[in-house]
Amino acid sequence: MNKRDILLLLGGLLIIVVLWMAPEESTTRVPRDQDHLRFYTIVKKDGKKAAEKFCLDCHNADGVPFPKDHPPKNRCLLCHKMRFK
Ligand code: HEC
Ligand code: HEC
């Protein structure tokens, strides 16, 4: 092995290590509790868009407020994944 091969090898290893350490998707998932269980059925049957219509019923300023720095919130379920196994 010459010097160049070794550098290539180290470079490859570095990339693997970096990918390894990247956090898993970190956005909180939709809980699997009383409030949210029915959405698991809706998503399975009619898709995400059908379920998302109801999120704002509870998730609003008078109910469960959003964190102050919450990103734009149409399409909840594209960011907040369900807890399917
Ligand atoms: C019946 C009321 C209700 C509806 C409808 C509802 N939620 Fe919630 N949600 C709650 C409550 C109460 C909490 C806070 C307590 C908890 O963590 O369960 C919560 C918490 C959350 C959390 C944070 C969980 C955590 O670990 O901190 C997420 C994400 C969430 N909801 C997403 C959704 C999405 C997406 C929808 C629409 C598909 C939705 N919710 C519909 C009541 C509701
Ligand atoms: C563009 C991506 C995105 C969309 C769309 C989105 N969210 Fe979020 N949401 C986030 C991020 C990022 C956070 C910050 C905390 C975290 O979950 O990591 C957050 C936080 C929350 C929290 C607080 C969670 C906690 O741990 O305290 C709730 C509840 C929540 N979102 C509900 C919703 C609901 C309901 C919708 C749809 C109306 C929605 N979000 C749409 C990205 C998104």
Overall description:
With 85 residues, the protein is mainly alpha-helical. The protein has a single domain, classed as Flavocytochrome C3, Chain A, domain 2 (Orthogonal Bundle). It is built from 5 helices and no strands. The termini are far apart. It binds heme C (HEC) (2 copies). One heme C (HEC) is lined by residues 26-28, 55-56, 59, 64, 66-67, 70-73, 75-76, 78-80.
Q: What's the CATH architecture? A: Orthogonal Bundle
Structural class of the secondary structure composition?
A: mainly alpha
CATH classification, class level: Mainly Alpha
Strand content bin: under 5%
This entry's quaternary arrangement is single chain
CATH topology: Flavocytochrome C3, Chain A, domain 2
Rg value: 21 Å
Number of domains: 1
Task: Chart the SSEs and their pairings.
Blueprint: H1 3-21, H2 37-46, H3 48-52, H4 55-58, H5 76-79
This protein binds heme C (HEC) (2 copies).
The site of one heme C has 18 residues, from α4 and α5.
